[in-house]
Amino acid sequence: MFSYDEDKQLEKIKKYIESTYGQHYVSNVGGKNVQVQDLLIASGHAESFYIANAAKYLLRYGKKDGTNEKDLLKAIHYIVLLLNLNHPVE
Fold first, then answer.
1. Measured between alpha carbons, how far is 73 from 4 in angstroms, rounded to an integer?
2. Which CA distances in Å does 1 have to 5, 6, 8, 12, 37?
3. How, if at all, do strands 32-35 and 26-29 pair?
4. What digits encode the pLDDT tens for the residues 5-23?
5. pLDDT over 70 (residue 24)
6. How far apart are CA 12 and CA 66, in angstroms?
7. What is the reported pLDDT for 73?
8. Sign of CA dihedral 26, 78, 72, 3
9. 4-13, 18-27, 69-78: which has the minimum mean pLDDT?
10. Is 46 exposed, middle or buried (0-12, 13-18, 19+ CB in 10 A)?
11. What are phi and psi for residue 29, nearest 5 degrees?
């Protein structure tokens, strides 16, 4: 079905995103664990943050550590967050 291994790349992206959840900074606010993402969404700043970070990692690609795959994975993760913010899966 896929001519260019997109299915394998999507699986790699999924594994990368899953791996980040052990790295997230969580604060206890009023007895509830809150991530920075939650605060960005609640304050209305998430969209700009996601766009800026996706751009940052795309622009950094090829400059820091060469053609670093992790920069692309990070950019994709922010794009997925932006996609979910503005076009959530129903």
1. 17
2. 9, 10, 12, 18, 35
3. antiparallel
4. 999 999 999 999 999 887 6
5. no
6. 20
7. 98
8. positive
9. 18-27
10. buried
11. -120, 115
